[in-house]
Write a structure and sequence with these properties.
alpha+beta, 4-stranded antiparallel sheet, two-stranded antiparallel sheet
């Protein structure tokens, strides 16, 4: 018996004024397969959306507040090539607007991640910052930590760095 594939269920569309983009809001229904008791990490994910869609996405997520979806999480601002230039966490849409107003000619896309458990936001942000490396030109306060074989560095409060 073949497994049923995962199915995208589109609930709404938002089209841009320029007609060049469409933001689709929906849900991914998992196919049949091994069911686990592990809950989903993310409530909402939006990746590499045009900054033209920022207001439409903000408005749509505002309508989902009654379902317990908040508009705080991890956000990423990307350049025209899709590279991450700024990564942060907090109030997603006001922060993205502020970043865009500082660098309007350099930023084109944005991504965001809203997690169920707020405690995971810091880990996701740190992971994204480390994976972006030296391309984060606009993160002036968050510097990439030096890495060397056999060295373990942590940014978690209350823990000190230790050699392995």
């Amino acid at each position: 018996m073949a497994k049923r594939a995962a199915v995208k269920r589109i609930e709404a569309d938002a089209r841009g004024g320029s007609g060049k983009w469409v933001a689709r809001f929906g849900k991914l229904d998992p196919g049949t397969g091994r069911k686990t008791a592990v809950p989903n990490l993310f409530q909402v994910v939006g990746e590499k959306l045009s900054f033209e869609a920022l207001s439409a996405v903000d408005k749509h997520l505002g309508s989902l507040a009654s379902k317990g979806i908040r508009r705080k999480g991890v956000y990423v601002a990307h350049d025209s090539m899709g590279y991450a230039r700024y990564i942060g966490r907090g109030r997603i849409f006001p922060r993205l607007r502020a970043c865009l107003s500082k660098h309007p000619s350099e930023l084109v896309y944005f991504s965001f991640y809203i997690v169920k458990e707020k405690q995971h936001e810091r880990e996701i942000e740190t992971l994204r910052i480390h994976s972006a490396g030296p391309l984060l030109q606009f993160n002036t306060k968050k510097k990439d930590l030096p890495r060397a074989p056999g060295i373990f560095l942590t940014t978690k409060p209350g823990l000190s760095s230790a050699a392995l």
